[in-house]
Amino acid sequence: xxxxDEAFIDIAAGDGGNGCVSFRHEKYxxxxxxxxxxxxxxxxVFAVADPNLNTLVDFRYTRRFEAKRGQHGMGSDMFGAAGxxxxxxxxxxxxxxxxxxxxxxxELLQPGEVITIAKGGDGGFGNLRFKxxxxxxxxxxxxxxxxxxxxxxxxxxxxxxxxxxxLPNAGKSTLITAISNARPRIADYPFxxxxxxxxxxxVGPEQxxxxxxxxxxxxxxxxxxxxxxxxxxxxxxxxxxxxVVDMAxxxxxxxxxxxxxxxxxxxxxxxxxxxDKPRWLVLNKLDMVPAEEREAxxxxxxxxxxxxxxxxxxxxxxxxxxxxxxxxxxxxxxxxQVAEQPSVEIDPRFKDEPSA
Length: 356
What we know:
The protein is of the alpha/beta class. It has six helices and 14 strands. It has a six-stranded mixed sheet, with helices on both faces. The chain has a five-stranded mixed sheet with strand order 3-1-8-5-6, with no helix packed on it. Strands 4-2-7 form a three-stranded mixed sheet, with no helix packed on it. A hairpin with a 2-residue loop joins strand 10 (197-204) and strand 11 (207-213). The radius of gyration is 30 Å and the shape is elongated. The two termini are 50 Å apart. The relative contact order is 0.13.
């Protein structure tokens, strides 16, 4: 399925039905009185977060969604039926913004979460509503209210705990294949992933995290160069970034340090909060570096990079060092998950009781 992470749609809730002017007509009852019913409300437009979807491709081809209008009121005290609602299924992680103002309206972050994105119009009043002691035969009625109409932008941000960051051909796709259940396309020549890939990394029983392999960045990505800028926003939801560096580039004249610094600079230009996220260095393809040169090359890289965080030396192809990386990543993600959970206050009546 083609990955689509952005779509523009128009939605229209149903208009309310009109009220009715009617009078009771019965044999031998000359003045039966008003019996015109109200109109029914228009249908609402809902959105639900469906965990079975991972793309917005359905909204690429169908861009207008309209709920049914309410039924008009009728005589004999009959009110109009409400219009049918419609529900749009979107992937978990979808952000809904107003296409005209850019205002963020909703975020669907929990599976099964349901929101109302457009309300149907209320039905109009029939003449039965206007009956009073001084107005025995009202001929007033009101039309139904119009339903809400909106032009919306749907944007999908990948929900992942860990994001793989790096230049094209740094080995990110090979790494996500080595540690997770994802099977992205991999090429043996300089090649970049065309859309994000998600994989679940299983560390142990009931121990796992989600990793996202994002398209490679190039210099100038924050200004729109290449494909990476289209997917930088997916990193904003991650808890940890793994900066994957190719330690054995095809071209001997390429300096991995300069390339890595360029990626960090693009992050800072795009979003300071993204730049401030925890970021670990993952030095990949060390199986292609002679064993006697590895230690010196790694030390030189870290020194010139002026990096003081965790550094992992791996070979995604041979799986060397991947187990240590996965365990360390899980511990970091778990620690952040615990820190993000709200503290629960203990009832003072039970504070002194020993735990079971």
